[in-house]
Design brief:
Strand content: 15-25%
Low-confidence stretches: 176-191
Structural class: alpha+beta
Number of helices: 4
Strand order of the largest sheet: 1-3-4-5-2
Shape: extended
Distance between the termini: 40 Å
């Protein structure tokens, strides 16, 4: 791993990390333990991540190193040529008018659905869980239960009506949520 430069975390565009693999790095023997700890702590104190190059499976990759507690994490990044610039889609994007009421309702929905922090444990890989259930059923010699097909959801009469319906569906959750700074926040922990 060869570090090229250190950057503030907020300067990185998540588009470059999409689909990449992440790994935890450990010191390579006793001699590397101290430099590893110094680098990790210095990056934490400086509030910086490192851009580097690493050879992974025989191929040089652009990677991001970041401190996580006492560990360094490595995430493989995409090169600039692998990312399509947003401007490439501007001619395909229809010009849409935004009404003030739609925008106000959208802001209300966003506020009602906003979480203070993101909790990964609140999200499950349901595809993987269903696949495991299917395999277990096959191994047990039972016929797996197949979920019935669900029809298309009905189209809302208008965007304003769809936004209002979404806000109404969130209302019971919002009333039960603790207030923070006078605003309700959504708990995504699943607890």
């Amino acid at each position: 791993i060869t570090i090229s430069e250190f950057v503030p975390p907020e300067s990185l565009d998540l588009m470059y990390a999409g689909g990449g693999k992440s790994y935890y790095l450990l010191p390579d023997g006793p001699v590397a333990t101290r430099p590893y700890a110094v680098l990790c702590r210095a990056m934490q104190q400086a509030g910086r991540h490192a851009l580097a190059r690493a050879v992974i499976r025989g191929r040089e990759q652009l990677v991001l190193l970041r401190p996580l507690e006492r560990l360094l994490a490595l995430s493989v990044l995409a090169y600039d040529r692998q990312i399509v610039a947003p401007e490439a889609f501007h001619d395909q994007l229809p010009a849409g008018e935004v009404q003030d009421e739609e925008l106000k309702l959208a802001h209300t929905l966003i506020e009602a659905s906003t979480a203070e922090t993101f909790d990964y444990s609140g999200y499950r890989d349901t595809h993987h869980e269903r696949l495991e259930q299917l395999i277990e059923a096959k191994l047990a010699g039972t016929e797996p239960v197949v979920a019935p097909k669900v029809g298309e959801p009905p189209l809302a009469g208008s965007l304003i009506e769809a936004l209002r319906e979404s806000i109404v569906r969130l209302a019971p959750e919002t009333e039960a949520r603790p207030k923070t700074n006078g605003r309700s926040r959504r708990n995504t922990s699943g607890k």
